[in-house]
Amino acid sequence: MNDNFYWLVVDTSFKESLVVIAEGENILLEVKVIQTFKSSENLIYYIKYLLLSIDMDFRKINGIAIGLGPGSYTGIRIGLAAVKGVAFPDRIPILGFNSFEGIAGNGAGYVAVPATKNQYYLWRAGSQECPIITSALPDNVYIERVGLKGSVIVKKIPKIIEKRDRYISFRS
Amino acid sequence: MRFRYLLAIESSCDDSGIAILDENGIVQVDALCSFKDYSLKLGGIVPEIAARHHIAIMSSLLESVLAKSHFSSKYIDVIAVTHRPGIIGSLLVGVSFAKGLSSALNIPLLGINHIEGHLFCGYGESNFVLPPFIGVIVSGGHSSIYLCDEKYNLKMIGDTKDDAAGEILDKVGRMLGLRYPAGKMIDYLAKHGVENNKIKFPNMTQEALDYSFSGLKTAVGCMLDFAERTQERFILSDFCFEFQRHIMREVLNKAKIACKAYGISKLVFGGGVVANSFLRQELSNLSDLSVYIPLLKDCTDNAIMIGKAAVLKLRTGKEISEDFFVFSH
Predict the structure, then answer these.
(1) CATH architecture of residue range(s) B133-294
(2) Which of A97, A133, B39, B102 maximizes the CB count within 10 A of its CB?
(3) Which residue has the higher pLDDT, B147 or A108?
(4) Phi and psi angles of residue B303, each rounded to the nearest 5 degrees, phi first
(5) Which among A38, A82, A88 is the nearest to B99, CB-wise?
(6) Average pLDDT across chain B, whole number
(7) What is the pLDDT of residue B126?
(8) Quick one: average pLDDT of B162-188?
(9) Is the pLDDT of residue B328 over 90?
(10) B 198-237 residues with CB < 8 A to A
(11) CB contact under 8 A, A89 and B54
(12) Which phi and psi (to 5°) does residue A13 adopt?
């Protein structure tokens, strides 16, 4: 990917929304927002804030990537509608990606996201299968972070889920 | 605020609308995409499906509007979007799209109340009704009465305590075995019906300005149950005639009471139920009041009315906030 190709990456599928500005494969800036009541509606302000921080405007963006879930219906709708609006004037191409793949990046292992009733959506990174709902996570899986406020990364995965890889895998 | 062209976006229910108006409120181009086909299949509006359709259609609808008008999006100086009241999922799509678009074009965005759209939409090309007036909204989602003061501020003076008028028409229509949207069918059947003294509904009119239609719905249910048990037969068109007359007179009575209570002789109607031919006839027969009703094609939700309300607000210099959220009420 060219280094001068600017990406706007948005994923509002989970409780933790994120907005990333990347140049080629380098993440320039990112913001994570724990979604509270009405925070998704402020998405566009976070995007503006990021762009302003690096002295950019919407016209410099060459491509937009948006997480299409699985995840919160309302969150996805808000994210998708907002980026469609952003993309419209300059006909910026929009690329949708599986949000689970966004979390897994190039890594191998499992991605788990909290569902209701102490259950998880569990997805094996890189597989073509749909996520399954389970309350029993595999024993050899290390849960990096559990909480209602964010996606949970269940790692068997070594330390590969660095920000950089996390958002770049879908771009190729 | 000066501007050349205003882009209006409406997505409060199941109709996606986009329009471009000039600074005088004259419509340059508009487009409306209704999902009535789906609603017909499903027997009503499904919020999730409506929201998905808004997302799917919004960009191409805007594309078609711009193509029709030979405008570029760069000509637009301000955007107005419905932000309340309505189905929350649908509103979120329209508002998020508008926020994205206004940010990319770096132009102001105005949140417009859907009710204001119905009442301030003007009658004729760009003529607005001069306040003060009593505004009545009767649709599938609302049955409310508003007092509009000299400065175009709306104050709700009456609301429905339970169901809206259009909702009752649909629900009773379903009891009668009619397809959604039943309001249209009831109107059609009622044209072929005649007065029938055997069909009687409970009297609803009280001095208060609030509507309440749920008792009427229960009464119709009981009436139909009783008729089934006793093998009594009604002529459907007569039933529709009586039912429609009863509900529309109730709508009208409250409006008249409001006018009398506030000493105002201007009455503005808006909303989908105003398309009902009986109500339009009754309204045109009111000689002591100046009545303003929208054209038949403008009764349904559309972006033109949102644009006109925005033009009016900008013209009157009302304080308009760009920082707004969506609300279902």
Answers:
(1) 2-Layer Sandwich (3.30)
(2) B102
(3) B147
(4) -80, -20
(5) A82
(6) 89
(7) 56
(8) 90
(9) no
(10) none
(11) no
(12) -75, -30
Residues from chain B contacting residue A77 (CB–CB below 8 Å) = 51-52, 55, 89, 92-93, 96
Give the pTM: 0.87
CB B247 within 8 A of CB B216: yes
Residue A32, pLDDT above cutoff 50: yes
pLDDT tens digits for range B252-286: 999 999 999 999 999 999 999 999 999 999 999 98
Domain boundaries, chain B: 5-121+302-315, 133-294
CATH assignment of B5-121+302-315, among 3.30.420.40, 1.10.10.10, 3.40.50.700, 3.40.50.620? 3.30.420.40
Structure tokens at A43: 């998405």
pLDDT in tens, B36-74: 777 778 888 888 889 999 999 999 999 999 999 888 888
| CB-CB contact of B325 with B101 (8 Å) | no
CB hemisphere CA count around B325 (13 angstroms): 10
Closest Cα in chain B to A89: B73
Domain membership of residue A26 as a residue range: 2-103+155-171
For residue B157, the one-letter residue type is I
Q: Which amino acid is at B208?
A: A
| Six token digits for residue B257 | 């009471």
Q: For residue B222, what pLDDT band results from cuts at 50, 70 and 90? A: very high
Query: How many residues are there in chain B?
Result: 329
Domain assignment of residue A49, yes or no:
yes
Distance in angstroms (rounded) separating the CA atoms of residues B44 and A120: 34
B97 and A74 within 8 Å at the Cβ level: the answer is: no
Q: Do B105 and A89 touch (CB under 8 A)?
A: yes
pLDDT of residue B180: 83
- Count the helices and strands in chain B (H runs, E runs): 10, 10
Find, among B100, B109, B118, B117, the residue nearest to B58 by Cα. B100
Q: Over 70: is that where the pLDDT of A142 sits?
A: no
Going by C-alpha positions, the residue among B268, B273, B231 that lies closest to residue B250 is B273
Residues B98-112 pLDDT 10s? 999 999 999 999 999
Both tokens assigned to B308:
């006109």
In a domain, A28, yes or no: yes
Instruction: Identify the CATH number of the domain in which residue A19 sits.
Output: 3.30.420.40
Q: Measured in whole angstroms, how far is the alpha carbon of residue B68 from the centre of its chain? A: 26
Band (pLDDT 50/70/90 cuts) for residue B181 is confident
Neighbouring residues of A146: CB distance < 8 A, sequence distance ≥ 6: A114, A152
Put simply, the answer to whether A77 touches B58 (Cβ < 8 Å) is no
